[in-house]
Amino acid sequence: MSSEDAPDEGTDSNPGTEPHPEVPRNGMPGPSPDERPHPSGRRNAKGIRIDPEAEAEPEYRSAVVSALVEHEPGVLSRVSGLFSRRQFNIESLTVGPTTVEGHARITLVVEETDPGIDQVKKQLAKLKPVIQVGELDDDAVRAELVVLKVRGEEPDKVQAITEMYEGRTLDAGPRTITVQITGDQQKIDDAIDAFRQFGIIEIARTGQTALARGDTPTTPGEEPGHAKESEQESESAETQTGTYDD
Amino acid sequence: MSERATPTTDQTEETDPAEAADETGETTDRSADAAGETAATGTESPADTGVETGAEAVVAALEDAGAETLFGVQGGAIMPVYDALYDSELTHVTMAHEQGAAHAADAYGVVSGDPGVCLATSGPGATNLVTGIADADMDSDAMLALTGQVPSQMVGSDAFQETDTTGVTAPITKHNYFAGDPDTVGDTVGEAFALSAEGRPGPTLVDLPKDTTLAETDSDPGPAETPETYSVEEDPDDEQVAVAARAVERAEKPLLLFGGGVVKSDACQEARGFAIDHGIPVATTMPAIGSMPEDHELCLSWAGMHGTGYANMAITHTDCLIAVGTRFDDRLTGGVETFAPEAEVVHVDIDPAEISKNVHADYPVVGDAGTAIERLSAEMDRSPRTREWREQCQSWKDEYPLAYATPEDEPLKPQFVVEAFDEATDDDAIVTTGVGQHQMWAAQFWTYKSPRTWVSSHGLGTMGYGVPAAVGARIAADDDQQVVCFDGDGSFLMTMQEISVAVRENLDITVAVLNNRYIGMVRQWQDAFFEGRQMAADYDWCPEFDKMAEAFGAKGLRVDDYDEVADAVEAALNYDGPAVIDFHIDPAENVYPMVPSGGANGKFALSEDQL
């Protein structure tokens, strides 16, 4: 086979200028669609080969994706633009600086199928300002902040609920009380439910942010830096960050 | 528009007299003399290597990066860059419209293999580039767009001719930059140029506020390097290659699918070698036309909506699809549920995000196409047994030939025109096209034998791509390479003003307008899917294109009958300069085979009653 490089004139796709004897007036020659053999295989909507008989709608799940990015103007709009353009179902997005100067961390919660989550990570990684992308395990440390303002008629009860959820009162007046609660998503949801009895006037939620637990870097190969001027202030434990390999 | 550098007095005092004279703008001759004297005296001449303004840094960066030709249109905010081009070795081709500049740069890149560069001013100049940038993005063509911008202190004030260009182009560029610092603008331009070509190619853009390009700087751009955060794996993983090789070895009906990445990574030699060494039939995607010679017996030509019946049959029945450098566009796959439904998919691509995006890859191989194919071949202990499968593919070629009816009394068939040009031109002639029926006929009835000879708009499907692409292709092509543009009447009407550029530059191109007085593909769809209600598809109001061409200063010809074709083709090809032939073709002719949108590739229709 490999030596038979010469083109076979007989099977040339171009019939030349000779009219083909079997060409219909407005179409092409050949057996019609139902006269052809057809395979029985099938893929699902995500292009995965499946049992032809099987129902195979992919299942959605929630994933926490952390992206380490260069802290430059426009990076958030590039990331959010990517998500809206590609129709990814995004639950929340938070952003803030890291211990490395010039770096920021974007934490995304997406509700997608497994192939969708894979795409989210790969498309994110393609953006030029994105340094590393990682998906967090279920045991990652996650937290969210909510600030909510309720009616102030029953300050004692509001205080009780706030304490139950380990929150803080930020502002209390005769007509309104504003509290903050931090915690995982479920706790925040529960707290909001509990405050509903007082009448919630306004609410502001940050969306989840998260870090990997223990020694695992949050994004692959991520190296923690030191907070600014940490050398001079090395006494102060709060501002110092270490490396994973100590 | 009349703004010009207005350096403060103390800045001018610090510079040498030549510069100072230059800055006033009124005394160009004198300043040139002064600069000449400086050079002649043999004293250290900063003009030779050193840059003095941001605009000069931009131009120096382009020169350093290896750019040769720029396509653009002048304007207020980009004027400092143009001023710096005045003394540069770079060739600038003024286009009639910025869209033309972008398409010309795109086509220049496709033909030459190096990124094309286009320039435009701010606001309308930049937005006019957008179609061409989006086109390059969808086809992964390396291209650098430079846009002027209002001075940075006016950005955000809705100033005259201001548009948020980085905002507008963020979704359609590989990356874009707002260059706010004259000291780094040169490096930014170099980085953008390098980034556009690195890994999976794509368009990049640098927005250049006028104060950045006017400002003084002595910072020469460094070498054009891609940013550190952009890492490309060119070498595929050993394990990935090994398991993919096993899959190919055991296949009984393997099929290679070459995508545009094979052409872009200059991997055609390796890809062809792999097919021939292992006796595996080859289908291509439309952007990969020419990657495998279409007269080779292993080549099934291109697959997809209007691809050959035999390529689509092979894709439908293969048990191992080895796809290289393709993103599985829906015009190729039809409905993914029925795409290569029984095949294990080996997917080679340099962009990991393409793996399993549209079609799940059972065996992903991330890396450069040429490297990956060679590694895959080396890893295979034996070739798959494909004799029966190859015979099957050959029999499909016989069953579903590309053919058309040509009784002499019928109106001229477009396919005949394409074949006439194919016969009259050399094997390495370049074809550019607009988008529509004519594009499909040009792809079907021309036998492509070399890569980078098919220049078309695939992913975005941009009507009007053909003529500006012919300009860019002509400039990038070898002198003895012929350039033929097939266009439709609707498509030609969109960018035919670029014929004026071809006339001014005396570019030897031939435009064949396949004129059916319809926006033909729309009419075909209306007939098939909208009960023949031909809303806004009738284009009998088009001008006489041969006379239009003459008005531009090109050669114009008109052909209505079969017996005029050969002479007209010869006259146009022999004419030294742009020639336009208005072929009045059968308005009822349609493009077949056709896989309806989202349909099964194996159920392509051969005529309207099969849709």
Oligomerization status of the protein chains: heterodimer
Specify Rg of chain A, calculated over alpha carbons.
29 Å
Largest sheet of chain B: 6 strands, parallel
Order of helices and strands of chain A: EEEHEEHEEHEEHEE
- Determine the number of helices of chain B (DSSP H or I, runs of at least 4 residues): 26
Strand content range of chain A = 25-35%
Mean pLDDT score of chain A: 85
DSSP, total strands of chain B:
18
- Give the rounded overall mean pLDDT of chain B: 93
- Count of DSSP E strands of chain A? 11
Q: Please, what is the CATH homologous superfamily of the largest domain in chain B?
A: Thiamin diphosphate (ThDP)-binding fold, Pyr/PP domains
- Provide the helix percentage of chain A: 10-25%
CATH fold descriptor of the largest domain in chain B? Rossmann fold
Structural class of chain B: alpha/beta
What's the CATH architecture name of the largest domain in chain B? 3-Layer(aba) Sandwich
Q: Briefly note the structural class of the backbone of chain A.
A: alpha+beta
Distance between the termini of chain A: 61 Å
Question: Strand-residue fraction of chain B?
Answer: 5-15%
Catalytic activity (chain B): 2 pyruvate + H(+) = (2S)-2-acetolactate + CO2
Domain Thiamine pyrophosphate enzyme N-terminal TPP-binding (chain B): 53-166
Biased composition (Low complexity) (chain B): 1-10, 34-51
Cofactor (chain B): Mg(2+); thiamine diphosphate
